[in-house]
Amino acid sequence: MIMKTNILKYICVICVLCGYTSCLNLDPKDSLGDNLVWNKADNFELFANQFYGWTRDLGSATDYQNGISDGVHSDYRSDLLCTSSVNTYSQGTNAIPEKDGNFTSLYKRIYYTNLLLKNAEEFSNQASIATPMGEAYWFRAYLHFELVQIYGDAQILTEPLDIDNEQLYGERDPRGDVIDQCVEDLQMAAELLPETAAEEGRLCKDAAYAMLSRVALYEGTWQKFHGNNTARANELLAIAQSAAKTVMDNKHYSLFYNSGLVNTGINNINQSYRYMFILEDAAQCNPVGLQKKDNKEYILAKRHRDTDKMTLNVTHAMLANVAYITRKMANMYLCSDGLPVEKSPLFQGYTQATSEFQNRDARMDNTMLWHGEQYWNNDSKWRTAWTDDDLTSCLTANARSNSGYQSQKWGVEREVADNYESMDYPVIRYAEVLLNYAEATYEMGESISDNDLNISLNLVRNRVNPNMPKLTNAFATANGLNMREEIRRERTVELFLEGFRIDDLKRWKTAENEMPQDLLGVKVTGTWFESNWSAQARDLNSDGCVLMYSGRTWAQKNYLYPLPQDQRQLNPQLSQNPGWE
Length: 581
Fold this sequence. Notes:
It is built from 21 helices and ten strands. The chain is mainly alpha-helical.
């Protein structure tokens, strides 16, 4: 199953990721013999350090690890975001690849987790290596789960097999069996990992339960909406709910909020949501001098230091008119009365450049730039102090380009060299756990109590919207809202640009409805843009909105990626995913 030239028999090789950087001491030796690697507990920890280079990040050379730049989980492959070039995956026109780095990397890395666990069996002092063992179980689950999300069925590997072992050249295991292995591994990880991480950026018990909630929710909803398998779905949804509740009850994490982070903006709203993503070790990155240590929301993060060079030039890649946010995303933000734009009397319409930003969910302002808003970027326009005088050296957003909707999520403000932004990437944050709990609870019986909403979703909703009405059953009924749609809306808005949307559409089995829709920008006809955007050269749709991309398709085969040709040639027993033959 695995490429002979690339995988296995790396018994003594530890450093599989060249150039990996972290605030952890993750610089293992190039080669350690068996008599050195496995003869003391410290070397198990050293070996496990490499695992932390395998999570998602802001940008990575390995596709599946890209959290915000293009990759299998990226919002660029969804219905909410686009850029200057056509994304074939978003368009539904991708083809079977000759090779796939995700496939080979994931199996190679599973081998390393198995290698540690195999050698742990013979180690005399098991208690002294409990943490690296827990890390190996966690990452083995994480990597197998990636295979399920990308390809569906996958081969379960729990031993560091030799390249000639016939098991490597057999059929794939059913996805349900793979998920069961992930659940078992995460439960084992939760037993072995420490209550709290000994060092920032390392795993703890809550990280195991949080990931378990993600895995079980994903597969539980997949089974419900793809397989119509209610019993299996509810079994997994109960696991997801319980795991999320465990994290909630442990009270080690909380949503990031600081009352001092108020910006004038259109609505004079709190900016805690925006600044959470750009906290650095330097204190000059926000008005009140907060640093990474002040953020208790990240359960597991890919850590970065000032001296680390990132793969992605984050600010250039995400700020202003580089990432084209769509009209669909803009319309998802509720109005401040908790109602959608089509229902709320507070919605100000689209006639002026900034009218649709008024009286909205504060996360809209936290995430997007509005026309005329002052901001800073890394083109020699930086904040030098946190006073009004500093506005003289900033830039002014001009919405008259591309989709007309511009992003400021992930855009740092302090002066920093290209590629040296040092904010962390949240692999798992507490807000996701709260939303996992709400969704799992609802989907088990297609109902949810107000109390369950209040201890989960409403905490996320009201973080920077303290005056927005809570989502309750009475509120939904009185306003003709669909509870499932509102739960999904909260998840989409909160986790935008963090690599969840396309996977959510797939597990909900709504991609076939959402993905073929045109990607649209601002409304031009009859608005301020009609007379103030003379350079607008894109076509308009029948409603007068900028037409970014049309002709998009989605076939049933697109719910899974095709297996690469080279792997099927190496192992003829590998069946191709449905529709890709």
